[in-house]
Amino acid sequence: MTQNTGIESKHSAKKIILRILAGLGILVVLLLAFVGFLYFHLKSFYTAPQRVDDRGRLYYTEYTGNYDSPFVTFIFDKIKPVRDGGCSAFYAAGSGGGYRTGRNYDLPHKDKNGNTTGLNLIVRCNPEGRYSSVGVADIAMLSRIGLNYTEGALDKGQLTDVLLSLAPYICVDGINEKGLCVSILALDLKEGETAVFQTAAGKESDIITGLLRRILDNCASVDEAVKLAENINLVNTFGADFHLFVTDDLGSSAVFEWRYNTLVVTYTDMITNFYVAFDDAEDCYINGGLKEKYVAPSENLGNYKFGYGHGYERFKTIMAYKAEHAADGILTMDKSEITALLKSVSQEYTDELTSLTQYSAVYDNSGRCVDICVYPDYSTVYHYEVSD
Questions:
Q1: Using CA atoms, how far apart are residues 165 and 170, in angstroms rounded to an integer?
Q2: Regarding beta strands 270-271 and 88-94, do their DSSP bridges make them parallel or antiparallel, or are they unpaired?
Q3: Angle, in degrees to the nearest 10, between helices 222-230 and 208-218
Q4: 133, 125 in Cβ contact below 8 A?
Q5: What is d(CA 224, CA 215) in angstroms, rounded to the nearest whole number?
Q6: Where are the domains of the chain?
Q7: How many angstroms separate the CA atoms of 304 and 293, rounded?
Q8: What CA–CA distance (Å, rounded) separates 39 from 54?
Q9: CA distance 135 to 181
Q10: Which DSSP symbol is given to 236?
Q11: Which of 53, 129, 283, 374 is 20 to 30 A from 120 via CA?
Q12: pTM for the full model?
């Protein structure tokens, strides 16, 4: 009896092993099927990046399908690569009518040898049921999650299909078919303060580049962008804080800031890297006991203030230009003048985390297009329309 029991036990063990192997085989097949589906699904809605400049710091791709995929948003939510960034931006009337937005994107990236680098991707999106847009994604930001994306990298196909699918969600500026333009600029945090992390009930959460994508896809004016932002819980990435510069084709421009976890919108036409809705007196007032929702006093809206942060010298350069050239408070500029002003506030590389201008962009709110110069070559301009 004991011997038979042993034989039966061996047979039972073999059956169990075979069942496990069969189960694993099914899992492998399912996994391969899922990977295959994901691969072809992701490849179905964008074109292969094409190099634009000689140096390999600017590329171009088109997204024709629904990049708002649950696979993409899941991956994006897990890695949240966005961090830091300097920048200057301003809004002006066009010399021939309409409105334009000037924008420098400043952020020093380095390669493994310590040399400055950059890797930006022009992203044209045409999502069904939402607004078309063209923007710029900073692909080098992916290096902050342990990868190595530097100039020329996209020539070699180093950007995987999964990561390339994230490009619409890591745009740092852009314009849509309604002439709404959005730019992200970095902010400093005072000692003792924490980066934004809103937790209001009943609202979806997003990071700053995700909010930029939502605005480009869904908003036609600054007012619509304000309403959208009010219904999002903004959360930080890597403990960094940012503000948004939002402009439209209706003569409106505003800065969105989330200090003290509260959205404050200030209507102004120029911005660098300091808070414009808060000055030292207001900080003392708030830190002295006011913990409820704070709204900037109406008399400050539209007036220039120097809040906590940096970038004052660049701001003063832009402000001085407006003081000299504006008529009745309205600054009118053609594209060459905007480019010249952007060049005057561009930055060489320093140890500051918001130095080194990656590119200068002139967004034509009325023309629904953008002209880009990849730093430091202001003699070469790359032009992109929102629609073909």
A1: 10
A2: antiparallel
A3: 130
A4: yes
A5: 8
A6: 1-43, 85-122+171-385
A7: 22
A8: 30
A9: 9
A10: -
A11: 129
A12: 0.83
User: Which class is domain 85-122+171-385?
Assistant: alpha beta
What interhelical angle do 70-79 and 2-43 show, nearest 10? 100
Q: Is 182 helix (H, G, I), strand (E, B) or coil?
A: strand
Distance, CA of 233 to CA of 219 (rounded, Å): 18
Do the beta carbons of residue 59 and residue 49 sit within 8 Å? yes
CA end-to-end span of the chain, whole Å? 83
Whole-angstrom distance, CA of residue 106 vs CA of residue 252: 24
Q: Which residue has the tokens 């999002």?
A: 232
Q: Which two tokens stand for residue 192?
A: 């003792």
Rounded Cα–Cα distance for residues 234 and 206 (Å): 5
From first to last of its 388 residues, the chain has per-residue pLDDT tens of 445 555 555 556 555 555 555 555 555 544 544 444 455 455 556 788 899 999 999 999 998 767 776 666 666 666 665 655 668 999 999 988 999 999 999 988 888 888 888 899 999 999 889 999 999 999 888 776 666 778 888 886 656 666 777 889 889 999 999 999 999 999 988 888 899 999 999 999 998 999 999 999 999 999 999 999 999 999 987 788 899 999 999 999 999 999 989 999 999 999 999 998 887 655 555 554 443 434 444 444 446 777 888 898 999 999 889 988 888 888 899 999 999 999 999 998 887 777 889 999 999 999 999 999 998 799 999 999 998 7
- Residue 207: what residue type? I
Cα separation, 9 vs 15, whole angstroms: 10
Neighbours of 324 (CB within 10 A): 8
- For residue 351, give every residue at least 6 positions away whose Cβ sits within 8 Å of its Cβ, in sequence order, or none: none
| Tokens at 10, concatenated | 């061996």
**Cα dist. 120→157, 334, 357, 379 in Å?**
15, 25, 12, 19
Find, among 167, 83, 73, 66, the residue nearest to 120 by Cα. Answer: 167
Please tell me what DSSP assigns to residue 155.
Answer: G
Which tokens belong to 44? Answer: 């179905």
C-alpha–C-alpha distance, residues 147 and 27, integer Å: 29
Compute the C-alpha angle 150/154/156, nearest 5°. 105
